[in-house]
Specification:
The chain is an alpha/beta fold. Helix content is 32%, strand content 27%. A 6-stranded mixed sheet has the order 6-7-8-3-9-10, with helices on both faces. The protein has a 4-stranded antiparallel sheet with strand order 2-1-4-5, covered by helices on one side.
């Protein structure tokens, strides 16, 4: 597993402090991040692959500073947004997955083989030439995930990947994430998604309020929100 470190991290938007005093070492395979809306959990998640840089302190992935070595970090860390429409950019499913490999060193046949494999892995092989805008919400979220995983990152960060999904597709996303060999960090409001995770971190008003096994951390969170 990779080592993701937050060392004395603070982040502010103007005069508003979003995160303060964050010191974490993330090495477990399955890590959940929970907290109320506006707690700072999504900002923390986006720091892992350099989408957001800390105002002070440092975030690193395997020793790579995310603010200074952003391109190298993003080769190691894939990110899936809540709304897949923010990530889907090409007109068909296979083209969208292939687009993620545009800067890779793979040959054209190797890219095609990789795309075909990922389409199969994520149950999208029957939709390879399907227009992306006609996909269901669950299929779009799977496509967004597939387009990240085709690059074979070491770490996947998913920011509320089930929030826009119905129960059936939320369960499908849960099983899909569980099957990934990568280190997975999930920000979520769906607490049952984290039952079998190794570690859950609770963020409250920009600080770590609890950090431990899922049952213990989730109980603390429930008490926080009353």
């Amino acid at each position: 597993m990779s080592e993701i470190r937050f060392d004395a991290v603070q982040h502010s938007y103007g005069e508003r402090t979003v995160l303060a005093g964050i010191d974490l070492a993330l090495t477990e395979r399955r890590i959940g991040i929970i907290g109320a809306n506006g707690s700072g959990k999504s900002t923390l998640a986006r720091m892992i692959n350099g989408l957001v840089a800390p105002t002070s302190g440092a975030v690193s992935v395997d020793g790579l500073d995310t603010a200074r070595k952003g391109r190298q970090v993003r080769k190691k860390v894939g990110f899936v947004f809540t709304d897949p429409d923010h990530q889907i950019v090409m007109p068909t499913v296979s083209e969208d997955i292939a687009f993620s490999l545009r800067r890779s060193s793979l040959s054209k046949p190797e890219r095609a083989e990789r795309v075909t494999q990922v389409l199969t892995d994520f149950g999208l092989d029957d939709h390879a030439d399907h227009p992306t805008h006609l996909l269901s919400g669950g299929q779009k979220q799977l496509l967004a995930l597939a387009a990240v995983m085709v690059t074979d990152p070491d770490v996947l960060v998913a920011d509320e990947p089930t929030t826009l999904l119905d129960l059936r597709n939320a369960r499908l996303m849960r099983s899909t994430l569980a099957a990934l060999p990568q280190q997975v960090i999930v920000v979520t409001h769906h607490l049952d998604l984290l039952d079998d995770f190794d570690r859950v971190i609770v963020i409250d008003q920009g600080r770590v309020a609890a950090d431990g096994a899922p049952g213990e951390a989730i109980t603390h969170y429930r008490e926080l929100i009353g």
